[in-house]
Amino acid sequence: MAATFNFCLNVTVEQERAYLDTRGAPLAAEEERAPHLIRSDRERAERLICHTKRVNEALMTLWNAVAPHVPDHRAPRSTTAKAIRQWMADPNHAPLLRGVIDIYFRSSLEAIPPTLNRLPFLHTLRIQRTSIAKIDARAFADCPALADLDLDHNEISEIGPEPFVGCARLLTLRLNNNKITHIPPGTFTGCPALEELYLNDNRIAYIDCYTFLGCRNLRRLWLNDNQITHIPNWTFSTFSTLLRLHLENNAIVQIGPKAFTERRELQEMRWEGGIPTVIQLMIPQQIVAGCLTLRAVDLSNNNLTQIDPLTFMDCADLRQLDLSNNQIAQLISHTFAGCPSLTTLLLHHNRITQITDHTLTGCSSLKVLHLNNNALFEIDAQAFTHCPVLMSLHLEDNPVAAEIDPQAVYAALPDLHTVRLE
Predict the structure, then answer these.
(1) Total of domains in the chain
(2) For residue 113, is it within any domain?
(3) If 358 and its partner were Cys, which of 114, 296, 333, 341 is the partner (CB 3.0–4.6 Å)?
(4) Has this prediction a pTM greater than 0.70?
(5) Is 19 inside any structural domain?
(6) CATH number of domain containing 316
(7) In a domain, 200, yes or no
(8) Nearest 5 degrees, angle CA 361-CA 367-CA 369?
(9) Which of the listed residues 84, 107, 130 is the one where a domain comes to its end?
């Protein structure tokens, strides 16, 4: 039986018990006394009553889903919240919970529920917007059927050893929007089927080749909006199946020349933004060498001052390249010669001064070219002859723009339908 449980709680059972013990009175007495308490105590009691009702409602929702799988002689003697809670805590009843495959917690939980090991058929688990600060060691070790785990938007800052060991069927893991600063080596050991990993919007400062040990089949990786400064060699060497990589909005200042070597399946790499204005990012030669299927690269807003002509020499399938909003002053001849499939090239908002007759050599498929907001004072008469199918050309906000005859440009490029000079 596929069931979805929406646990919208504002207090945990442990918090409820601790409060009742401190007050020294049962819930019924609190309800009776509530009208006679001083204002602060009355409000506290009302909140407690409301919280307790929600806890009980959640337990009843869970029980109503499980009940059809429980024989009468194995059912609890009563269906009160207390009786169900005790029944759930009995390990002998674990086999009866096999119908539970989808759970959604959204509450003031402070720890991963330990009863997960009694749900061997658990397929989807979402724990969002809670107070959980730590993932304990082997927290999900007894969830062999778990395929989708969502732990985003919590307070997680610490990860214990091997938290996902045994999650052989885990496909998607979301740890984004937490406070994680470090990923211990071996964190993802035990989930070899993992395909999507979200680590964005954390405080991660360092990654290396040990960070992703065990992720042999990873296809999409989100590391954007962190505090990463260095990417050492072989960082992504543990998986050869990566299709999409997000590194935008970090503070990367150094990249190992072999950080992305032989990522043959990589199709999209986004790396825009995040570089402090006083730092210039240096792109190593042939950083994407061997990335034969790379289709989109975004290196905008990185204070790049130059592009080595060997950088994109093996990118025969590259379709979109964004180098805008950098500090590039010169484009060396044949820089894009290894990109015959390139259709969109964005170079606007740089400091480029000249386009020679060999700058765009090899760009036979180029359709969109943005060169606006540069310092162009010269464009060779043969500059665009390498782009026979160019359809959109932006040259506005350049010194040379006033000297260009648009009719001559249209005559030289028969497919051109847009030229912007002003």
Answers:
(1) 2
(2) no
(3) 333
(4) yes
(5) yes
(6) 3.80.10.10
(7) no
(8) 70
(9) 107
Whether residue 378 lies inside any domain: the answer is yes
Q: At what angle do helices 81-89 and 39-66 cross, to 10 degrees?
A: 60
Instruction: Give residue 83's domain range.
Output: 1-107
Distance CA 227, CA 225 (A): 7
3-state secondary structure of 82: helix
Closest CA to 305 of 275, 284, 330: 330
Q: pLDDT tens per residue, the chain (422 residues)?
A: 233 333 333 333 344 444 444 444 444 444 444 444 444 555 555 555 554 555 555 556 556 656 666 666 667 766 666 676 666 666 666 566 555 556 666 666 777 876 666 567 778 888 888 889 999 998 888 788 899 999 999 999 999 999 999 899 999 999 999 999 999 998 998 899 999 999 999 999 999 888 998 888 999 999 999 999 989 988 887 778 899 999 999 988 888 888 877 667 888 988 887 654 445 566 766 677 667 788 999 999 988 888 988 888 888 899 999 999 999 999 999 999 999 999 999 999 999 999 999 999 999 999 999 999 999 999 988 889 899 999 999 999 999 887 887 787 878 888 999 889 87
